[in-house]
Amino acid sequence: MSGNGGSCVDQKQFERTITIQALRVPKEKCQTYLKSLQGFVLDRPRLKCVVLDSLGSDANSRLILLKEQAAGSGAPLPAAVGDLCAKDNLEVCEYELKLDYNYFTAEQVLKELLPKGTEVPGSFETVGHVAHLNLREELLGFKHLIGEVLLDKNLPRIQTIVNKVGSIENTFRVPEFEVLAGKSSMVTEVKQHGATFKLDFAKVYWNSRLEQEHKRLCTKHLRGSKTVVCDMMAGIGPFAVPAGIAFLQA
């Protein structure tokens, strides 16, 4: 397994400045105006539509940011917004909304960086702090870029990004992995069914997607039962351990 040194991402290319219109309102009337302006205020994930008024001199005023579609720079205000401004004598000003790399999701960043038309990896399996990818052949040339972006956007929950190399051919069904980003250690902990499993994902077969099936079998067939279970493919016990817990809870 090998990691990747150096950054693949030029974060500066994601810096954006969007000029939109805003209404200067008294702080104590923000909620009232937000109700009146429903459908016209800025509606972007992780961004506030009410901000401090750094443009004005009144510490008690706030800016209500309007949607780009409703009021881009220099665009006429929608009739309902214009009527409200005229009725309450509200001041309209321009506001520069600044976005950077940290604002965008992993999917948005990868769509920007990967060749146009490339299908962006949308999901991955997690095993403790390790994210396990199974990249298609056409994405292998961008594997370190993909790993770095996914790591950036999932820290601190995810600390290692790996990709499966080749097919599983060994006796213990342990895949070979390549570390694409993050720390190289794959010793991690997984909590399932009230138990904590400590494992080295590089040496032990583990499939988190089987958790619900294990739970179903234990709950439906083993809880309250005197059945003796012999798990011939026990590994480190992702089925045997919850089966034992179900027996003890009988």
UniProtKB/TrEMBL annotation:
PROSITE patterns: SAM_MT_TRM5_TYW2 (PS51684). One of its GO terms (molecular function) is tRNA (guanine(37)-N1)-methyltransferase activity. Keywords: Cytoplasm, Methyltransferase, S-adenosyl-L-methionine, Transferase, tRNA processing. GO terms for cellular component: mitochondrion. It holds the Pfam family TRM5-TYW2_MTfase. One of its GO terms (biological process) is tRNA N1-guanine methylation. It catalyses: guanosine(37) in tRNA + S-adenosyl-L-methionine = N(1)-methylguanosine(37) in tRNA + S-adenosyl-L-homocysteine + H(+). Residues 124-250 form the SAM-dependent methyltransferase TRM5/TYW2-type domain. Belongs to the class I-like SAM-binding methyltransferase superfamily. TRM5/TYW2 family. This is SAM-dependent methyltransferase TRM5/TYW2-type domain-containing protein. It comes from Cymbomonas tetramitiformis. The lineage of its organism: Eukaryota, Viridiplantae, Chlorophyta, Pyramimonadophyceae, Pyramimonadales.
